[in-house]
Each structure stands twice: as C-alpha cells, then as structure tokens.
Specification:
Length: about 325
C-alpha cells in the first residue's frame, strides 16, 4: 500500500469502521477479535486476553504468530505486508479458515495500524519474538527480533488517534462482547480485567441462563447441537418450556436482530417436534453469508434452510424420545 492509500483510509475512516465515534473505535477491537477467532476455529489458538488503560488497548492471543520471518510479495516480510495492506475478500494472514467478520466489516489488520495514533506489534513464532511499531499507519522501521522464546502468539498495543475518534475504550462493552464470543465459540477462553471465562456448552449455557431467568419449568432440561459440516458450522440449543419462546440467532459471530433463514430452519424443527422451549438459539458460520439490507441484521440464505433442518431434526427428535420435556 502506498502513502496515498493510507491517506484515503485516514481521510474516510468511517468507510472502514462504520463511524468515528465509540462504535467505530470498537470496530478496531472487533477486527482483532475476528482474527483471533479465525485462529481458534483453525485449532491454532485457545485464548484471547484484553486490557485497557486510559488511551491504551492491549490485545493478546496465543495463535501461531505473524509471519515476520517469511518474505512478502514485494520488499519486506509477509507480516509487514499484512500490516500495511488492506485486505478485502482475500485470504487471512495465516491462510486459515474463512474470516468470520464478527464486526461485519473485515478489512484486515491494516486498519489497526492506519487508524491508531500508535500501534506496537509483538509476535512470537518459531522460537523468535519479533516487534514492529507504527505511528498513524507509517512504520517506524522494519520488524526486528527482540529475543528468543518458547511461547507463541501476538500482542497488539494500540493508542487512540484523537484526530480520528471521539470515543474511549469501554472495558465493560468489550467484556460483553468477549462473553458473547465465548458462547458462540465453545471452548474459547476469554480474559480481561475482571473476566476469566470459558464455556464448553456454548449456546446451551446461554439458553439455560434465559430459562432460569424466566423461571420456566425444567430450565435444566437442555438440548444442544454443535457440529462442523463441509459448507458450514452449526450450533443450536433449547432450554426449558414456556408458552412464549425467546428466540435468538447469530450468523458468523453477529447477532442477527431480524433473524433470517437460519432461525426459520430451527423454528421448523422445533414445530415438527411439537415443542415450546423457553429459549431457542442458533448460530451458523458460512463462507459467504448474504443479508437483507445494509445493517446485516437478517440472514438471507434460503438454500441453508434444508441442510440445517436435516442436521437438527434427527438430533432433537432423538433427544425428546429419551427425555421428557
């Protein structure tokens, strides 16, 4: 990316993160979380850790690290290339699973370096720890080795660029997002100030919490489905019984407020099994999700209804045969 491209990003940051208020600022956090969850889905990472102190955000994962030792397509390292070039519909930095875009934008690590006042990247890989720093998107020098290590992973240390953003880091907001991510991606450990959380049952735990809050009968009577297929990942859960069901759906890590075709499939399965759960949740991950409208709040992939139904119905039918709900 040349300097004029960097200027374009900084001149119109809302094109890349949605706004220049606190919501746009937190898209930088979401982009880092996207990247770490990609690595988790590829079985390359187990946790993320987030801390804030005033203007500073520090984000750490234990993934494979950035490829500072590999040559890039031009001059410099491959990691330097990913940190200085926008990524739109291209492979991820480690060429792992399709980027899931928790934030709904997915422009890659370049927006992290371009839209912060300072960005320091420390990454451990193949027994070497590397460091590179940026000031408003411009590298302060080439990456360099800072030591030998038996650990692996990457830490981003960012400071807010007050020329661009009006908001502040909100630890509570990020903690809520981390807890949601832990439920959507069971087994992922999330850590921050006041938080050390992991759930092995994902949406099942979330549904059970809702059933308990509603004081519904049989709140601990839970069905949970979690599987990876060739074309999609699928997680679904129901808990308790009630005259009114609380429905919640997610697609590629995003809450789909207006639901969509994935929830249609789950509703048909539950109706076919003649159930009225207190809570019913579903999360689907697909490579190329389509949404109705610009807000990405309603999944519009009709062809996913039948595969989801065929995956969920036998499991739920077997569950109700063995359990009295």
């Amino acid at each position: 990316m040349d300097f004029t491209d960097l200027e374009a990003i900084r001149k119109r940051p809302a094109m890349y993160v949605g706004s220049t208020d606190v919501n746009g600022l937190h898209h930088l956090f979401n982009e880092l979380l996207d990247n770490a969850i990609d690595q988790y889905l590829a079985n390359q990472a187990t946790y993320v850790e987030v801390h804030t102190s005033g203007e500073i955000l520090e984000f750490t994962d234990d993934g494979p690290g950035l490829p500072f030792e590999k040559p890039g397509p031009h001059s410099g390292s491959l990691a330097d290339y990913y940190l200085t070039h926008i990524r739109l519909d291209t492979p991820t930095a480690d060429n792992h699973t399709p980027h899931i875009h928790l934030s709904g934008w997915g422009c890659g690590l370049r927006i992290i370096t371009a839209l912060t006042e300072t960005c320091e990247v420390t990454s451990s890989r193949n027994h070497l720890a590397w460091k590179q720093s940026f000031s408003r998107g411009i590298s302060n020098g080439p990456p360099h080795i800072v030591g030998h290590t038996s650990e692996r992973g990457t830490t981003f240390r960012l400071s807010i660029d007050r020329d661009l953003f009006s908001g502040d880091w909100c630890q509570h907001r990020m903690n809520q997002r981390l807890i949601e991510a832990a439920h959507l991606f069971p087994g992922l450990l999330v850590k921050s100030q006041g938080l050390h959380f992991k759930t092995l049952r994902g949406l099942a735990d979330l549904a059970a919490n809702v059933a308990h809050e509603k004081n519904s009968p049989n709140p601990d009577r839970i069905w949970w489905f979690n599987a990876v297929f060739e074309d999609f990942h699928l997680q679904a859960a129901i808990a308790g019984t009630d005259s009114e069901t609380e429905w919640k759906s997610f697609a590629n890590g995003n809450l789909t407020i207006e639901n969509g075709t994935h929830l249609t499939a789950l509703q048909r399965v539950i109706e076919a099994c003649n159930l009225r759960p207190a809570a019913a949740f579903i999360h689907v991950i697909i490579s190329n999700p389509r949404f109705s409208g610009p807000t990405r709040s309603k999944l519009d992939v009709p062809e996913i209804i039948s595969p989801i139904y065929e995956a969920l119905y036998p499991s739920l039918k077997s569950f109700i045969t063995e359990e009295v709900i």
